Predict the 3D structure of the following.
Amino acid sequence: MKQTSFPGEELRARREQLGLTIYEAFRKTHVPSAYIEALERGDAQSLPAPCYTIAFLKSYCEFLGIESERYVDSFRACVRPSVVRFLARKGYVYRPPAWLHDVATWAVVMALLVLGWVTYTVVLQPEAQSPDKRVDASTVGVQPAPGTPAGESGAAN
């Protein structure tokens, strides 16, 4: 944290204005004295994780009788990574091998062929009966009706 961007000196000035020592502030707020000193110096390396630091900062500001929002916002601005630095960083970019594109293309083509074949065999192809259930017209014999001669068909004129 830069000392010019975080107003830690104002916290120290307010504490000294009230005539309090760091030890007295520690006893009243239960914020460790090392963290109070780091807040007043603006030393982010000596502070814990931001969620704890913000809670300590709010407690310390309440103890000093000042609004904490300005200090919390200033602290967040100091520890937030720069957008430009984030966008400009150059890291490893995964690039798949050249043959992977060809394999994926052929896989899609094969999937379409299999899907077409399944669609034809299941949906479009008419359902045929098995040969043992078919009636063969050549083997069916028609018996003449009783009382008719063998050459007549049984239909009356």
Summary: Residues 4 and 97 are 49 Å apart (CA to CA).
